[in-house]
Amino acid sequence: MKKFQVITLFPDMFSGVFGSSMLWKAQKDEHVELSTVDLRQFGLGQRKTVDDTPYGGGDGMLLRPEPLFAAVEHAKQNDPDAKVLLMTARGQRWKQATAQAHADSADNYILICGRYEGYDERIVSLVDEQVSIGDYVLTGGELPAMTVVDSIVRLIPGVLGGEASAEIESFSDGRTLEFPQYTRPEDFRGMKVPEVLLSGNHAEIAKWRSENSQVAEKE
Ligand code: SAM
Hints:
Layout: E1 2-8, H1 13-18, H2 21-28, E2 32-38, E3 51-52, E4 62-63, H3 65-78, E5 83-93, H4 96-104, E6 109-112, E7 129-132, H5 142-153, H6 164-167, E8 176-177, E9 187-188, E10 191-192, H7 195-198, H8 202-211, E11 214-215
Parallel strand pairs: 1-2, 1-6, 5-6, 5-7
Antiparallel strand pairs: 3-4, 8-11, 9-10
Bound molecules: S-adenosylmethionine.
């Protein structure tokens, strides 16, 4: 069973996402184990401080190395061989192929969520991969960590039920975006389902779908 431990200052943010829908069911069916490690627990002193100002000056605060190292070491005690992924806008761009490779591997994961202006760079010495979910800056690494976990877990065999549903999806071959889909009713406010999809002619349907798939823009 694949295991994910997420190091975060905001574990409550994960209860909704990990406790609902497909991620909840994947845990119930014992395909995955999802947990959080509260970074605050490893804070310094009575106030459990986790951040400090940057050397050299500049706005904002950085996560200090001591709590981050302690949290990773704690997570490694639970799972010594787990791969450590750091959420950072400076990381390798996360793609469907990356999610697939991680779903196919036998690895377990520890994900680190940055906050404030980021983290002390020395944490990188414990990290196997630096991950960016796109070229924009979020307030913290929690949404990226949820994105990474969700995109991997739904590709683990057995999680989605109909395995083909992941195979024909957007990006599953690298660049193709899925064709438009319709469900009932056939006519909704004058907007009709394309005739060919009602025809029962599988060859014609496949042709229409292929013609209506798009190719994603190259970066
Ligand atoms: N000062 C940082 C910079 O300019 O790149 C931004 C820090 S951001 C406000 C706080 C944290 O959110 C980061 O340390 C990282 O963990 C996470 N984060 C923000 N954007 C991200 C992205 N696109 N991908 C992955 N993590 C991101």
